[in-house]
Amino acid sequence: MKPVSSIACSGGIYVILALVAVLFCSGCASHSANCPVVIQYWEKWTGFESDAMQSVVDDFNASQNRIRVEYSSIGELDRKFMMATAGGVPPDVSGIWGSRLPVYAENNALIPLDNFASQQGIHREQYIDVFWRLCSYRDHLWALPSTPTTLALVWNKKAFREAGLDPERPPHTIAELEEYNDKLMKYRPDGSIEAMGYVPGEPDSWDSMWGYWFGGSLWDGNQAITADSPANLEAFRWVESYTKRFGAQKLITFRAGFGNIASSQNPFFTGRVAIELEGVWMYNYIKNYAPPDFEWGAAPFPTSDPSKYHDTTIAECDALVIPSGARHPKEAFEFIAFVNSQKEMEKLCFAQRKFSPLAQCSPDFLANHPNPYIRVFLDLAKSPNATLGPPRLISWSQYKNNFDNALSRIQAGDTTAAEALHEVQVRQQKIQDQDLRRWDRVGPELTSEWSQQ
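Predicted structure:
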C-alpha cells in the first residue's frame, strides 16, 4: 500500500480539491486578533448527531477569538478524506471511524498526536483504556475519541413474559441463550418460522467476531492469524448448529422478511426476534421506530464461560484526527482538546445519547441520561474483556470479507465450520505475511517521519 502522498488523483478528486481550495481561501488573507485562523472540520454525521457536534463547535468558537472552526457534514467521508489528503488539500480536522485508523496511519495520511497531547496535558489515564487503545497504533497516538459505543444484549421483555420467561432476567451463558431460544420459538401452520429468540447474524455487523464471546481472538497481536483457533471453532460450530437444527432454507426465508434496522420494520420491533446484539445507539432506534409500549432491557451478551469471559464486549469509537498536510495542525489540536474536555465531551455524548469515553463522568450526566441502560454500556467499556472490534490490521477489510464468505457457506450448509475457518486461516495468513514484509521495508521510514512531527 503506497503512502497517501503518492496516490494519484483521479475522477471526482478534482471536484473535491476545488471545493477544499474555495473553503481554505475564504475569509481573511492574514491572521490577527480580528481575523482568526480558520479551521476546516469534516465529519460524517448527519441529523441530530451532526447538530450535536455543531453545538460543540459553536461553544469553541464563542470561547475565544483566535480560531474559528467551520464544520461540514460530508457524505462518503472515507473516500473524500483520502482523496483530499492525497491531493495535498485536506481539512484541518476530520472525524473518522476508529476501525479505519490503521489504514490511514500506514498510508501516511495522519499526523501523530503524541507531542500535541503531551503539550496539552492529555494522557492515557484520562480515558477509558479501550478507547485510548483504539486511538493508538504502532506505539503512536493518532486520534482522540469523540463518541464511543459498546455492544450488549438487548431483549424484548414482552416476548419473554409471553414465553413464560422472567422478563427481568436475560440469559447469562450461550447454553442458557439456547434454552431461552427454545421457549421463544414460534412456527406457522406450514412449519415455517414465525419468530425466534435469537439468530446469529441479526444484525450481521459482527459475524466475524463471534469467537470473542468464546474466549477467542482473530490474531495474536503480532504476526499470527488465529481464525481457526479452538475458541473460534467453538463459536462457529455454535453458529453452524442453527443450520443443522432449523434448516438452511427455513432460516434464509425467515430472515428475508426482516426490515431495516432504522425503521419500524426492524425485526426486533416487530417481534420476529426477541434478542439481539446491539450498540448503545439502540436507544435512538427504539425511541424513533419501536411501538410506544415497547419494553426492553440491556445486559452483557452471554458467553461460553462467564467465569472467564464475563462482560465481553466489542468497543468502538468515532475519533478526531489531523490529516497529513493540514495547514493548521496546532490550532486543529486545540479544537480537538476542547472537544475532549469533560464538559464538552459530555454535552456531545449526551446529545447523541451515548456515554463518555473519559475515565471521569459527572453524576448528573448519568442521572439525567435518557437511555435507562446507559450504565450497562459504560460498564462494559471498562470491562477487562472489552475488545477492540476489528483487529488492528490494514488487511481487515479482506479478512472480514473472507469471514463473511465463510459464514455464508456455513449457514447455507455448503461446508463445515472447521473447513471454512481453515480456509480463512490459510488465505489470511498469506495476506498477513505480505503485509509484514511490506512493513519491514517501509516501517522504519514512516516511523522516522512520525517521530519528527
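Summary: The radius of gyration is 23 Å.
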